[in-house]
Amino acid sequence: MKLLINQKDNIFYLKGVMNEFAKLHPIAEFTGPVMILNFKEVKRINSIGVRELIATIEQVDSSIEIIFDECSSVVVYQMVMIPNFGSRVKVKSVYAPYYCPECDYQEDILIEMENFNLEQSLLKATCQECDSELEFDDDEKLYFWFINEDTK
């Protein structure tokens, strides 16, 4: 796993596979008012990687706001399976899986969580291959269970 830090904007870019070899200590050492963890390029997470990330987040000073941004599907699935994985954070945006029922094209589409309401229809998108309408490729209620008052 690579951890790239944009100190000017307080963004930590996590890339690759999050496992027992992930070196996350710079996250725990952060001292600014707001920290953004960008998960766009996290491709896989194993149980040890989740445990290490949770432990690292617990070490961050409680006065610091932690924002998860561009959460890949693998990160969202971990938030669904492990209740305290995202308990202290605000989720800014997630990638959601879509597919085309006509040609089987698949695409992850970024959904901003501010003002997101599951009761409304999900984002409408068009297939880049055949121009058909894409469909959400998961259980909507389960995929977005982590929505709380901060993200509505």
Which structural class do you get from the secondary structure elements?
alpha/beta
Uncertain runs with pLDDT below 50, 5 residues or more?
none
Under the CATH scheme, the architecture of the domain at 2-95 is 2-Layer Sandwich
What's the gyration radius in Å? Answer: 16 Å
Q: Cα distance, first to last residue?
A: 31 Å
Spatial arrangement of strands, main beta sheet: 1-2-3-4-5
Question: What's the main sheet like?
Answer: 5 strands, mixed
Describe the structure.
The protein has 152 residues and is an alpha/beta fold. 20% of the residues lie in helices and 32% in strands. The protein has a domain at 2-95: Transcription Regulator spoIIAA (2-Layer Sandwich). β4 (65-69), α3 (73-81) and β5 (90-91) form a beta-alpha-beta unit. It is elongated, with a radius of gyration of 16 Å.
